[in-house]
């Protein structure tokens, strides 16, 4: 919980027993670009050696035909790295590759280890030399030092030392290993690929939108606490930790693509339901419902359909600008909101507007949006957020800033409303969030909204 400086969160993918595995990995990473834009990388194996290419930049900037042609083989893993303020060195790009006594491994990780600091200190005391700031590197050292004879047992031994959120995909020259932590904080799905010769290949990815792009069939989610081993014998499953599912509800709120299936539900439907709940909980008279593009679109459609207030795309987004969170300084963040979003004045002028977004973190986006709508002559601006106030940082893999920067941790809703300059502000309740998600048997990690950390 205390380890905020080694956070990792991203997209991961692994492909096994597929001709030209690297190119399938490339397309999968492309479909999951929203989960990380800072750096990307692929390791592939032809059974003899592992080759890794990783670089800062978007998937389409880093890879081309020439680089992909160097990534030969039947198995590959890939990673998109999310930007984390301050730490952007190449040493922190993944996959991480290492040679050790049993051969070669490459590892990708989505999540955040909460005991990484202690383990790292212990390893350093024991003579280990670290090359990056990533908690993921711990796993390489633990595997290399484990006492067991084969890699499966070494991975099990190493994994049992780790606490926190992790989806790991580990590539050896001949096999691929997939592990999801016992709480299943971050999503991870398993799919099947039919090769041209009739043989079966496998794909594991953070989001199912990757399967749609490469033509894979969704089989199931990797279970919390499960390890999958892919080898020439096919796929084997082991339960290596007792499972206690607490998947992250913020995947539904913001992080995942709306067309992905997360924990068995289409994200778009859940976001729409959040908007419907918001309309039931917070009715208000208005002329138009408009979304903050793209994060508020599905919820705004839900709100509009439930309330009967017309939906319009009142603000248009320039898609060629990255996410506002990426820039480290407040000054640039504000400029980027203006570069990214442009209102349609004729729609807004003299209207009572309901604006929907998925969340307020620092308050920067909402404040800017209220200002540009006021500048267009909106008569009233009612900001509605399709999740509860974000009051606590995430230690399990979502990039939220320090608690001192979370506006709802410092201010009441009334004060936040004054800060952003809206006529009213309302959030979805925790109960409303639960109803929208609708999975009765599921407990979700919602620590960002209620401050209750289970680790
Ligand atoms: P802020 O401007 O700091 O209040 O951030 C709120 C905006 O950031 C909203 O439009 C959200 O869609 C978006 N957002 C929320 N969480 C994240 C995150 N972890 N990474 C990037 N953007 C986010």
Structural key phrases:
single chain, 455 residues, alpha+beta, Glutamine Phosphoribosylpyrophosphate, subunit 1, domain 1, Rossmann fold, 7-stranded antiparallel beta sheet, 25% strand, disordered N terminus, binds adenosine monophosphate, glycosyltransferase
Ligand catalogue: adenosine monophosphate
Counted beta strands: 21
What would you say the CATH architecture of the largest domain is? 4-Layer Sandwich
Low-confidence stretches: 1-8
> In what order do the strands lie side by side in the largest sheet?
3-2-4-1-10-9-11
Q: For this structure, what is the CATH class of the largest domain?
A: Alpha Beta
What is the rounded Rg?
22 Å
Which structural class is indicated by helix and strand composition?
alpha+beta
Shape: elongated
Distance between the termini: 7 Å
As for the CATH topology of the largest domain, it is Glutamine Phosphoribosylpyrophosphate, subunit 1, domain 1
Main sheet characteristics: 7 strands, antiparallel
Task: Provide the CATH superfamily of the largest domain.
Answer: Aminohydrolase, N-terminal nucleophile (Ntn) domain
Helix content: 25-40%
